[in-house]
Amino acid sequence: MLGVIIGSLFVSFSLLFIKGSRSWSLVSVSCILFSFVSSLFFSSGRVVLSFFYIDNVSYPLIVLSSIIIFLCIMASFNVVGSNTNINGFLLSILIIGLFLYFCFLVNTLVGYFIFFESSVIPLLVLIARWGSQKERIQASFYFVFYTLVGSFPLIISLFSLYFIMDTSFMSFGSLVQVPHQNYSFSLISIWWLFSVIGFLVKLPIYGFHLWLPKAHVEAPVAGSMLLAALLLKLGGYGLIRISGFITSTLGYYVSTFCFWGSLVTSIICLRQTDLKALIAYSSVGHMSLVAGGILLNTSWGVSGALMLMVAHGLISSCLFCLANLIYERSGSRTLKVTRGLKGLSVLMPIWWLLSCVFNLGLPPVPNFIGEIWVIISALSASVLYIVILGASLVYSSIYSLFIFQKTCTGFVPDFFLNISVFTPREHCLVILHLVPLILILGNPGICFC
């Protein structure tokens, strides 16, 4: 199975050496073929190699990665000008995809850490080289700084595991032995807290999120899609791998902070004037809810978090695509300017409405299923969680409807009257985001751990 991954990516890399615009189409076709191959042939519970393993947690995220990589290339046809390095842009996306596959396949904590940190470099290149504004350099600095600082607690945790386990081969399954070592409960709890902090910075949750809005706003559309749909999920994936092995009262305190952060960021969304910043803050709120569900350490909580990760990966990527379609035509992301789409297109308001409905979690969409599973897990821990979670979901619905109201209603600005029409490729791009979400409704059990 590893040959399928390497072979497909090798074909994609080789197509980059074809001159001219044909490389876009050929690489796109190669990526979509690989997405179908991964969904058909990957199955959970299969050992690929001694260091690689696929289970119920990694399988949906691998398929999600395959889909998003293709959609990133499809969405970027207008990002790279004719006088820039097209092959370098495509190569950066494919390298990120390669590291992401290995992150979700690797069976060791050290390997996961190496591949995750490696994926930061090509994403940094995307933001710094193909960002839209001069502030992209500052956004790149924030991104690297928070990533490196957030890695320090995880590095300390890895060194501690090396001395505890007396081996550098630390598979995720071997972590179950950590609580049974001859160390005090306080020391093990400190190790757990350091590990969790490292992953919470990478999600990120409220309080560790300052780098995310800046990176999203300045990144090209492919960078925003990769960051929201996949890079943030690596933090949740690592959290799932380590949270189930430690039973600690610290988990309830941290999950409470995460749920509270979800409420705060939902309120912050209502104060945003930049469309991409609003979508970025909504990602912080959703990831805070994911972290809280995982740290409750129940099957319902982890399954709900995984469902939210997959659903959010698709819908956040779709929202950033829609925001980019407006930005390419108006040159602005300000909500007071980007309005009146219902007077310009028949289909675009429909796509915005469906995307906002999926984002706010109306039944029976996958976001709703994931939120219900997390709420069930939270109420089993304490009924007081219903106050925070209820308010968070209400504000989440408000800002989702706020996005639709600002973009699609109102009069059409004068400079919007001469914009180009939306192309079939752009409509197809939105449809390919929404179809997998609809298909998940037929089998939501694929995200149940």
UniProtKB/TrEMBL annotation:
* One Gene Ontology molecular-function label: ubiquinone binding
Q: Which reaction does it catalyse?
A: a ubiquinone + NADH + 5 H(+)(in) = a ubiquinol + NAD(+) + 4 H(+)(out)
Q: What is its EC number?
A: 7.1.1.2
Q: Which GO terms describe its cellular component?
A: mitochondrial membrane
Q: What does this protein do?
A: Core subunit of the mitochondrial membrane respiratory chain NADH dehydrogenase (Complex I) which catalyzes electron transfer from NADH through the respiratory chain, using ubiquinone as an electron acceptor. Essential for the catalytic activity and assembly of complex I.
**Family per UniProt?**
Belongs to the complex I subunit 4 family.
In its UniProt entry, what is this protein called? NADH-ubiquinone oxidoreductase chain 4
Q: Which organism is it from?
A: Chiridota heheva
Gene encoding it? nad4
